[in-house]
Amino acid sequence: MKQNPIPQLGAATALVQLLSENPRLPLLDWSIADDALPLSGTCLNDGVDMGPVIAAYAEVLGGTVREIEFVSADGARMYSASVAATWRDVRVIVRGTCAASVHTVAVAA
Q1: Best exposed site among 49, 64, 86, 93 by fewest CB in 10 Å?
Q2: Distance (Å, rounded) from C-alpha 3 to C-alpha 19?
């Protein structure tokens, strides 16, 4: 009898490899799903510029960094960056959001 593979196993293996082979990558919160985009890393930190955080992952994963500024529901200006790529045959998306003022100050420095 043939067993069905565990959908999350490939994503979990890829995550372990990514983090063990690149221990200096910034910390993220990771989630593994069993849909079309199984591996997702996110970071929401108003005080840390997410531009360099996402750029570090883009350097390892490949892909193009996408950046936007938006106004949150409470009226705060926010900056968000993301990169989507396929790494070790697993679709990965990494996203980071911070206060737009933190990103603007970091870019100007």
Answers
A1: 64
A2: 29
- Report the C-alpha gap between 30 and 19 in whole angstroms: 11
Q: Model-level pTM?
A: 0.85
Distance CA 14, CA 9 (A): 9
Residue 103: CA atoms inside 13 Å, Cβ hemisphere, count?
A: 22
Alpha carbon distance 89, 3 (integer Å): 21
pLDDT digits (tens, 9 = 90+) for 19-54: 999 999 999 999 998 766 689 999 999 899 999 999
Structure-token match 């994963």, residue found = 61
- In one letter, which amino acid is 96? G
In angstroms, the first-to-last Cα distance of the chain is 62
pLDDT in tens, 64-107: 999 999 999 999 999 999 999 999 999 999 999 999 999 977 66
